[in-house]
Amino acid sequence: MADGLVLWAAPGACSRISLTALLHCGQAFRLAGVTLARGEQLRPDYLALNPKGKVPLLQTPHGPLTETLAIVCWLDEQHPLAGLLPRAGWPRAQALSWLAFVNAGLHPLLYRARMPQRIHADTGAHAGVREAALAELQAQLQVAEDTLADGRAWLMGPHWCIADEALGWLWTRALQSGLAPGPFAAVAALADRLAAQPTHQDALRAEAALH
């Protein structure tokens, strides 16, 4: 396994998923902070590393790697016994589907709810943008609620995978953004189980140290 990994992350951001994945694998790495509220992701030195101006960014001996799905898949290949994802076949495809759903389906709605000013310049439109985003987020999150409603512990059944961490992160941020928690008892229960996971706790502590 290559050494010298650096993860650029922001407290509370979706980079927590990659951070948790690294910790779960037991992979040595250095954590570097990016404060999004201060616009540090747009500094020339950071843009030189990641022209997208976003987190996460994983610096590797092979070059920079961005996007949560790519980072997780690469780490899973490097650490096949860590259990980030099911090993193969239909279970792996389903786990990747959940991870993609959170990152490409739910995350953009969360962004609109949290930052309507980035979507529409007219301040008079911001409340409508936020309301529409939260309504669609609630509708889409019902997919996860319905899946978990059969009593399973995790999205894939009895075994945790990194898609659960992604959903848990999204859930926490959605609540902070005004999502009504009432209809999502099963998702809330998954988030409670995540809170007891050692690597989840380690990720929160690592984020807190970046402040």
UniProtKB/TrEMBL annotation:
> Can you name this protein?
Glutathione S-transferase family protein
In terms of SUPFAM superfamilies, this protein maps to: GST C-terminal domain-like, Thioredoxin-like
Gene3D superfamilies assigned to the protein according to its UniProt record, in alphabetical order: 1.20.1050.10, Glutaredoxin
The source's domain of life comes to Bacteria
Q: Give all residue intervals belonging to the GST C-terminal domain.
A: 88-211
Q: Which PANTHER family match?
A: GLUTATHIONE S-TRANSFERASE GSTA, GLUTATHIONE S-TRANSFERASE-RELATED
| Bilayer-spanning residue ranges | none
In this chain the GST N-terminal domain maps to: 2-83
